[in-house]
From TrEMBL:
The active site is at D171, H231, S389. The keyword Membrane does not apply. GO terms for molecular function: serine-type endopeptidase activity. This is Subtilisin-like serine protease. Residues 875-950 form the Secretion system C-terminal sorting domain. SUPFAM superfamilies: Subtilisin-like. It comes from Ignavibacterium album (strain DSM 19864 / JCM 16511 / NBRC 101810 / Mat9-16). It comes from the Bacteria.
Length: 953
């Protein structure tokens, strides 16, 4: 029976329990764990990094600014503490990280996203926890194949390790008095045992052997003993059990010391063991207290800024973090192993094949034996376990030997020395070529080869700049993309370094894939700006396609590789050719494509300002039980996904009649049985020249595809504005009764611009102003935005004309409408911004004038996705010499469109190919023809239609 440690990332919103020296309060024994999409996190807790070092008392309690206090007022903060109080006196990059505990029921995922844009906050997120999953085998010893596999004995002939090199075991604790571990356990000689004094002033009292951040039930202590047989003792033994002592096992680390850092509390356990709650705090402790290597045999999915910051800090302290790649047999990102600066380790078997459970992929650096590993076990016993949890500490132990052999190397150099001296095993794993890192670690080569070379890409930038692309930042079919890369040579100098770019996807072709870097010195950085890589994107690229590439390095005997990637044909884009910029998605949402994380997109900006919009969305409804929308749901941490993408949002710069035009088609099929039965075609227009340079027009054509008449339909746009501090503090939204539009402004000395939303397509106005916390008697949306509230917002006319000051939203709407079967209506809005109210008024007037021009000029937008086949009259008619012919097809068909003279002779073929359902326009140039009457004929399937047109010269 095999033991497999598996990892699932746990996102946590934990208010920091009084931590470190100060302990936990008794109220923390009952932590509530939430879960969403496989991510676990603690309720009622936020982790925030402030842009400044906060003031605090002796116990780490933070004095929040009045602005931040007001921002967090609605969540009822009960406690705010510095996470790393000992960093305050050092002016460290970690000093501004605090934890917030609050008493409301608001989801930490939502709250952290909402406040992340505050002027005082660098980032905000829930606090991550991690879960162990394993099944221990019988502790019968057969052999330690892993040590012979990595040539440990040959390595020990070179170096058996320096007792001053310490390996931090950030885990579930270590059985530090185990007879095969005790002699290698680190001792803090600067601390006097058991005197109750923090002698070395590191923030921890009597931390002789390490630290326990969680204890049995939330109270930290100075005894990092494993509470019960779980994990950490086995990990520690693999890294550096006492070797050559005549008992038990040998270990790669040999003489190197072990620092136990317990990051669990025994009363917070899942079905498979204790949660890793304080892993990142443990990394900082280990780095601060002299660990040159830090092993993390835990992790999961989900990126954390808190996590990356602790890795960055550890590197700055000279510590190399080694982490398990994960046990999900997956190529997805896994943290902390996928963080920049971490040595990520996959697991292999005794035959150098990938362990069945092991993760693989682009972020893996090396592999190491992890299947059936026999080593120490709590309490004073031994066990055989399997997992990347076992492969990682084997590599960490080797890192300690490399530090011992190359004492002048920094942490990244040690990691690279291990990586480039690994044995390539791709031939034994053909399905995982380039996805198990450089290879399986080889201890002898890592210590023996003093002439290693290692070059890495440290920063990659993709661009669709002219002439290959249109410069809109959206990598579309047919564009040529340039790739700028910053590189670093970590080890010995190169003499004739060559770097190639290879496409490893089906949708791109490399055009320029060679860069000769030549001679590069140790630790030197360089770039390829003089000869950028380029590739073209195929016309068949699907939506949100991952475009993966290999960078290949060569210089004499040195050969290496590295993965890079970008996204082709994304389903969102930012329209930004004038004073306002708005991210528009294909699913009916605005500002961002990944609510509430809000990383995919730019939000809404005026004149290059910081983002001023947290969320935007289309809402359609016919009653309080029949709503189709893309706004947040009744659960505020989830955004509704009622709209199915028919045509993704495409942005053209320039457009046919505007400087930027976008288009998308969606229907509400994702609403299931509750759908209204509408296909919505969105066209967007923006202009760079005054007086049309401070608005974007959003023009919806709503088509009834329900099979029955749709009555009492309302259409609206919801916007959650955050003009100030990322949280909207002091914002106020109002309805202008004179010009009939809604606007938002800040009342407390924040940004001075005014933003507005105006209906352009009619006079059946609706507006609802929302104070998000409900403090003005209206409904509140911090706890979610349910269908009855959405219906109230879109259907009540000018139902609520003001809200704020505070964190506000508004809904601008139109209706009611009736749409017969197959018919359509138009509903159009302008999103605007200006320096003051008078200029915003002028922009509203101008946007309404411009929209009337668009209705005349944009012939292509007269219809939308058709339910049937049709051929329109050409325009203009009569014409000289060019006219446009529009046709529609209701399903995928082979299409022929031909032009004939009045006698029936064929003049030309305009279309002769298979087309998907949609609206099409083709131009006919009659420059070489004489004046007269001509016929044009559309044939597709059984549908045939012929019309006349007149050429007048």
């Amino acid at each position: 029976m095999e033991n497999c440690f598996r990892f699932s990332f746990v996102r946590i919103a934990l208010f920091f329990l009084p931590i470190f020296l100060f302990g936990f309060s008794s109220g923390n024994s009952d932590l509530k764990i939430l879960e969403k999409d496989g991510i676990k996190y603690l309720a009622n807790t936020l982790v925030i990094k402030l842009k400044y070092i906060p003031s605090s008392d002796a116990k780490g309690n933070v004095n929040l600014s009045s602005t931040l206090t007001e921002t967090l007022k609605s969540i009822n903060v009960s406690e705010a503490k510095v996470i790393f109080p000992e960093k305050l006196k050092e002016n460290s990059s970690l000093a501004g990280i605090i934890s917030i505990k609050y008493e409301s029921d608001f989801d930490p995922l939502y709250i952290s996203s909402k406040i992340a844009g505050s002027n005082e906050i660098e980032w905000a997120e829930p606090k991550f926890i991690y879960e162990l999953d394993y099944i221990p085998n019988d502790p019968s010893y057969t052999s330690q194949y892993a040590l012979s596999k990595i040539s440990a004995a040959l390595a020990w002939d070179i170096n058996k390790g320096d007792t001053n090199v310490v390996i931090g075991i950030v885990d579930t604790g270590v059985d530090w008095d185990h007879p095969d571990l005790a002699a290698n356990i680190y001792t803090n000689w600067n601390e006097i045992p058991n005197n109750g004094i923090d002698d070395d002033n590191n923030g921890y009292v009597d931390d002789i052997r390490g630290w326990d951040f969680g204890g049995l039930s939330g109270t930290p202590d100075n005894n990092p003993m494993e509470d019960q047989p779980d994990h950490g003792t086995h990990v520690a033994g693999i890294s550096s059990a006492v070797t050559d002592n005549g008992i038990g096992v040998a270990s790669i680390g040999f003489k190197c010391k072990l620092m136990p850092v317990k990051t669990t509390r025994n009363d917070q356990r899942g079905s498979n063991g204790p949660y890793i709650i304080f892993g990142y705090e443990g990394i900082v402790y280990a780095a601060d207290n002299g660990a040159k290597v830090i092993n993390c045999s835990w992790g999961g999915s989900g990126f954390s800024m808190f996590g990356q910051e602790t890795i960055n800090y550890a590197l700055s302290q000279g510590s190399l973090v080694v982490a398990a790649a994960g046990n999900s047999n997956s190529s997805g990102s896994h943290y902390p192993s996928s963080y920049k600066g971490v040595l990520s380790v996959a697991s292999t078997t005794s035959t150098d094949t990938k362990s069945s459970f092991s993760n693989f992929g682009y972020s893996v650096d090396v592999s190491a034996p992890g299947s059936s590993i026999y080593n120490t076990w709590q309490n004073d016993t031994y066990a055989t376990l399997s997992g990347t949890s076992m492969a990682s500490p084997l590599t960490a132990g080797l890192a300690a030997l490399v530090f011992s052999q190359f004492p002048s190397y920094n942490a990244e150099q040690v990691g690279e020395q291990i990586r480039v001296n690994s044995d390539n095993i791709d031939n034994l794993n053909p399905s995982f070529q380039y996805q198990l890192g450089f290879g399986r670690i080889n201890a002898f080569k890592a210590l023996n080869n003093a002439n290693s070379i290692s070059v890495r890409a440290i920063d990659v930038s993709f661009s669709d700049e002219a002439p290959g692309g249109d410069g809109d930042g959206v990598f579309e079919a047919g564009e040529i993309i340039s790739v700028s890369v910053n590189f670093k040579n970590y080890l010995n100098p190169t003499s004739n370094l060559s770097i190639q770019l290879e496409s490893r996807n089906s949708y791109s072709t490399v055009l320029n894939g060679n860069f000769n870097a030549g001679a590069i010195g140790t630790l030197n950085e360089f770039n390829n700006n003089s000869s950028r890589f380029t590739f073209s994107i195929s016309n068949s690229v699907p939506q949100n396609a991952k475009l993966n590439f290999l960078l290949k390095f060569s210089d004499g005997s040195y050969s290496d590789f590295q993965w890079i990637e970008t996204i082709g044909n994304p389903t969102y884009a930012t329209q930004s050719v004038n004073d306002v910029a708005l991210t528009i998605t294909s699913k009916g949402a605005f500002a961002f494509n990944d609510y509430p994380n809000n990383l995919q997109g730019s939000g809404f900006k005026y004149l290059g300002s910081s983002n001023q919009l947290f969320e935007g969305a289309l809402i359609l409804g016919t009653s309080d039980t029949k709503i189709s929308d893309a706004a947040r749901a009744a659960n505020q941490s989830v955004q509704n996904n009622d709209f199915t993408i028919v045509q993704p949002f495409l942005l053209n710069v320039p457009g046919n009649i505007a400087d930027a035009e976008g288009s998308a088609i969606m229907n509400d099929n994702n609403a299931g049985t509750n759908k209204i039965g509408i296909t919505a075609r969105l066209k967007t227009y923006s202009y760079s020249a005054s007086p049309n340079n401070n608005f974007i027009i959003l023009d919806y054509t709503l088509i009834n595809n329900s099979g029955a008449a749709i009555t009492n339909l309302y259409s609206g746009l919801f916007f959650d504005w955050d003009l100030i501090d990322g949280s909207g503090l002091g914002d106020r939204t109002e309805w202008d009764n004179s010009l009939n539009y809604g606007f938002v402004r800040n009342t407390t000395g924040g940004p001075t611009n005014y933003n507005g939303v105006a209906l352009l397509s009619g006079t059946n106005y609706g507006f609802y102003a929302i104070k998000n916390d409900g403090g003005d008697g209206g409904f509140q949306i911090y706890d979610g935005f349910d269908d009855s509230e959405k219906w109230q917002a879109i259907s009540g006319g000018i139902a609520k004309a003001t809200a704020g000051p505070g964190d506000v939203s508004n809904v601008t709407s139109a209706g009611p409408f009736t749409i017969n079967v197959g018919d359509s209506i138009k509903v159009a809005f302008a999103i605007l911004a200006a320096d003051n109210k008078a200029l915003l008024d002028a922009a509203v007037n101008q946007s309404r004038i411009k929209y009337q021009e668009i209705l005349v000029l944009d012939v292509e937008d007269n219809n939308t996705l058709p339910a049937e086949f049709s051929l329109a009259q050409n325009f203009p008619n009569p014409f000289n010499p060019i006219t446009s012919i529009q046709y529609s097809i209701g399903s995928k068909q082979f299409v022929q469109l031909k032009v004939y003279d009045i006698l029936g002779n064929e003049v030309t073929t305009l279309v002769n190919e298979e087309k998907s359902a949609g609206l099409y326009k083709v131009d006919f140039d009659a420059s070489g023809l004489t004046s007269g009457i001509y016929l044009y004929r559309l044939q597709t399937g059984s549908f045939i239609s012929t019309k006349k047109m007149i050429l007048l010269k």
